[in-house]
Amino acid sequence: MNMELSLYNTLSRKKELFVPLNPPFAGMYVCGPTVYGDPHLGHARPAITFDLVFRYLKHLGYKVRYVRNITDVGHLENDADEGEDKIGKKARLEQLEPMEIVQYYTDRYHRFMDQLNVLRPSIEPRASGHIIEQIEMIKKILEEGYAYISNGSVYFDVTKYNEKYAYGKLSGRILDDMISSNRELDGQEEKHNSFDFALWKKAQPEHIMRWPSPWSEGFPGWHLECSAMSTKYLGEQFDIHGGGMDLMFPHHECEIAQSTASTGKESVKYWLHNNMITINGQKMGKSLGNFITLEEFFTGSNALLDKAYAPMTIRFFILQAHYRGTLDFSNEALLAAEKGLKRLSQAYETLQKIQPTENANSSLVEIKDNCYKALNDDLNSPMVMAQLFECARIINSANDGKESINESDKLILNEIFQVFCFDILGLSFEADNNQSEIIDNIMQLVISLRKDARTNKDFVTSDKIRNELDKIKIQLKDTRDGTEWSVVE
Predict the structure, then answer these.
(1) What is the spatial distance between Cα 389 and Cα 364, in angstroms, rounded to a whole number?
(2) Residue 290, domain CATH
(3) Within this chain, do residues 217 and 295 fall inside the same structural domain, yes or no?
(4) Above pLDDT 90, what percent of the chain?
(5) Is residue 80's pLDDT more than 90?
(6) Does 269 share its domain with 414?
(7) Closest alpha carbon to 118 in 31, 55, 40
(8) What's the rounded Cα separation, in Å, for the pair 290 and 42?
(9) 0.70 cut: is pTM over it?
(10) How many CB atoms sit inside 10 A of residue 479's CB?
């Protein structure tokens, strides 16, 4: 097995050979959801992307500690340092305790992720459960001189930090350019500069969630939680930090600044960012009001959807594009994903029934090697899928007697499906196979009725059954071993 895994590092803007800090252990931190509403398709992409990373690292033999946080405090409206807490606002509107909102939507997030076959992380910390760690990190940043206190709030001093370190290196922004285009914003008089960001905010009287601190009764800034929790569970330096591309600035940029200011070390070795899901070329998300929830996908209850789509169709749809590429939603694309998944499922089902020949197929070892090459090349899931479709072609061709596969080939094909399709890509045919079994039982009943009609020389009924099946694109084929049926594409 080729262990030379290379990943595209957002920080260096190039592919780098993945060498963990403490092999064979790998630490990975991914920004999880802010739980104030139902998960939508935009939430599914990072979950599935880093599920792929998690699965592949484990397959390669790494012991992976995968930390994915739950944001349940401090994430203000418009991702800013002013305004109402998103969860607090939801709690006020629904007249519930904030933690009721958090628990309800966390449970729903887990349920939908389970349906997408996303593995649970090793640790799933909540921001509200790590207030002490965040306060301690703020103290260290203040001691190092990279923050200041203003009216009970604490802000990170970006200008002071930039004198020694480079603020903006992840996103490619230059502080001087930000200063030259800077405009003072209303409600930010507490800050020395508008691009300084909150480490701790003094709570206004109407703010629901608040904790005591040395500076005021308040709450931590949104960016701080990830720095504090990643440090607690993965140490001051760890291997992979991931999230959506929309988090690169300012969230991840601020994380780098906080962690570096408090420890004096570069905390993350590889920064990985998945691209966005778009609809008509525009980012899909709650803030734009153009999102479709996962529940709506699974039930078809959204005006933008032509029908309901199974969770595995959604997973297939996301994995068929490289994680760094844009992915545009359309019913046509989802129908194509549904068709592709069905093709793989039917091929795998055919493989279990196929009778091996004496002649071998020489291309299968190369297909297996190509799957590893694709994954080692920055987790190229579309290329892995292409290899799986080549396996499906070989299986169907062998079933038609046009190609040969022997017993050893059959074992290799089963291994390719098990390892790459099921274990690493996380696809599942179980529900599809259950449905296929039901349909096959119905078709066997229809075939039996047609056989009885032919035995009784009732050719009118026999022909009618065949003709009606033709209309719905089901083809019958009479062989010496009996009648077979298939769907005509």
Answers:
(1) 12
(2) 1.10.730.10
(3) no
(4) 75
(5) no
(6) no
(7) 55
(8) 11
(9) yes
(10) 7
Q: Which pLDDT value is given to residue 109?
A: 97
CA distance 378 to 262: 31
Nearest to 487 by CA among 346, 336, 332: 346
- Least Cα distance to 69 among 198, 243, 208, 218 occurs for 243
85 close to 450: Cβ distance less than 8 angstroms: no
Note the pLDDT tens digit of each residue in 201-246. 999 998 899 999 999 999 999 999 999 999 999 999 999 999 999 9
Give the domain-ending residue among 274, 302, 333.
Answer: 274
Q: To which H or E segment does residue 148 belong?
A: strand 147-150
Q: Where are the beta strands (DSSP E) in 203-288?
A: 218-220, 238-244, 268-274, 277-279, 282-283
Q: Is 12 within a domain?
A: no
The boundaries of the domain holding residue 460 are 431-487
Q: In this structure, which amino acid lies at residue 11? A: L
Q: Distance between CA atoms of 258 and 13, rounded to whole angstroms?
A: 22
For residues 283 and 262, give the distance between their C-alpha atoms in angstroms, rounded to a whole number. 34
Are 329 and 216 contained in the same domain? no
Q: Are residues 300 and 415 in the same domain?
A: yes
Residues 410-424: b if buried by 16+ CB within 10 A, e if exposed: bebbeebbeebbbeb
pLDDT score for 63:
97
Sheet with 218-220: list strands edge to edge.
Answer: 147-150, 153-156, 197-202, 218-220
Average pLDDT rounded to a whole number, residues 337-351: 97
Helices (H), 205-329: 222-234, 253-263, 294-299, 311-319
Counting the structural domains of the chain, the total is 3
DSSP string, 381-406: HHHHHHHHHHHHHHHHHHHTTSS---
Identify residue 18 by its one-letter amino acid code: F
Structure tokens at 149: 């206190």
Place of tokens 């760094």: 324
Which residues, other chains included, contact 159 with Cβ-Cβ below 8 Å and sequence gap of 6+?
175, 179, 192, 193, 196
What single-letter DSSP state applies at residue 249? I
pLDDT > 50? residue 186:
no
Q: What is the mean pLDDT of the chain?
A: 92
Percent of the chain with pLDDT over 70: 93
Residue 62 backbone zone (phi > 0: left; psi -120 to 50: alpha; other: beta): beta
